[in-house]
Design a protein that fits this description.
alpha/beta
Length: 261
């Protein structure tokens, strides 16, 4: 089986956007709306178990029971807060404060040069994806054949819907692809779609369990900044390359194939 496409999650995978990006933007939206809500670093880490921004707000309301504006329609309130949060988040990106994770730019460029098809499968909004790429690697907006994001499917990760949509749109089979995620929910989503997955953990997800992942790393690495292998094997590789991607992909579907070297 030949590797034809790479499918990337965004938040926490392409960039460390959660703690100092989305969390800050949520808090700004709450303040702007006159709400006395503040999501601490610790609380936000717990809320990340819920995928999707609007879903996260609703879960917070249902579990923490914060004071609500009198007479407010809950669905409308959540939608307005999420819209404001997106505006604050894109403003943060415009300030250049959220770079791509180690090795991401290099690896994307290598894959694009080699003619590997690229796609995004994420629960964040299309606006957030566009803003991140515009301010970190503008040319890559043309590299991604499919940007599957937000409410384009009814069920968000860990449901496999976003990956099924991406595969169908690209006309690919799961065995043609390799996914990149940072969280347990993301891994479950890709696994249920039948796609082998490389996980790059971050501060919020490093303690999660990633059973069945093809490879788990702390980041994709650079020639002068090697990755740490947390699960699986990378052989003699010290940073993630297309060659390693192809070896990991082949080994996943055929354990008797040549070991990762």
């Amino acid at each position: 089986m030949q590797l034809q496409a790479l499918i990337f999650d965004v938040d926490g995978t392409l960039a460390d956007t959660e703690r100092d990006g989305h969390r800050v933007a949520f808090n700004a939206a709450f303040t702007e709306a006159g709400l006395d809500w503040q999501w601490s670093v610790e609380l936000y880490g717990q809320l990340l178990a819920v995928t999707g921004g609007k879903e996260r707000i609703r879960h917070f309301i249902d579990t923490e029971h914060p004071p609500l504006p009198q007479g407010s329609d809950l669905t409308d309130l959540i939608a307005r807060l999420h819209k404001a949060k997106t505006r604050h988040y894109t403003a943060l990106l415009a300030q250049g404060g959220i770079p791509l994770r180690t090795g991401v730019k290099r690896f994307l460029q290598e894959a694009k040069t080699a003619g590997i098809r690229l796609a995004i499968a994420t629960t964040t909004t299309p606006e957030n994806v566009t803003a991140l790429l515009e301010h970190t690697l503008p040319e890559s907006l043309q590299w991604f054949e499919v940007i599957a994001a937000g409410d384009i499917v009814p069920a968000k990760k860990p449901a496999p819907d976003i990956y099924h949509y991406t595969l169908e749109t690209m006309g690919l089979r799961p065995q043609d692809c390799l996914a990149f995620e940072d969280s347990h929910n993301g891994l479950l989503s890709a696994q249920q779609a039948g796609i082998p997955t490389v996980v790059t953990v971050n501060g919020y997800t490093q303690a999660q369990v990633f059973s069945g992942a093809a490879l788990v790393l702390d980041h994709l690495g650079e020639p002068g900044e090697p990755f740490q292998v947390l699960r699986g094997t990378a052989g003699s590789h010290r940073y993630f390359t297309l060659e390693l991607a192809q070896q990991v992909h082949a080994q996943f579907f055929n354990p008797n194939s040549k070991p990762v070297s």
